[in-house]
Amino acid sequence: MTERTPRQAIALRYDGQKAPTLTAKGDDELAEAILAMAREYEVPVYENAELVKMLARMELGDSIPHELYLTIAEIIAFAWHLQGKTPAGFELMPAPTERDITPKHP
């Protein structure tokens, strides 16, 4: 008989100033409720069981560990991109212009 791994979910809050904090976590029914609320408020959902397992060890209100800053930053940046958002003060770099790389002969 195989033991079923419970479905887990976490929620993070990011205010744009400090490291994201853990605002919700739960298994099975609570996990489904967290995901349902995210869908209701059109919050992007990223599924990664190993990352959730690491973050679920934290206490509510804890900031994410420094070792996960880059991983979480990439997820937040992608979620913002999907929603058409950009951080305050962020400016897109103009696309590089094409350069003529044909050799010039005298």
TrEMBL record:
Domain of life, source organism: Bacteria
Keywords: Bacterial flagellum protein export, Cell projection, Cilium, Flagellum, Protein transport, Transport
Protein's GO biological process: protein secretion
The protein's name in its UniProt record: Flagellar biosynthetic protein FlhB
Gene3D superfamilies recorded: secretion proteins EscU
Family: Belongs to the type III secretion exporter family.
Function recorded in the entry: Required for formation of the rod structure in the basal body of the flagellar apparatus. Together with FliI and FliH, may constitute the export apparatus of flagellin.
Gene source species: Pseudomonas rhizosphaerae
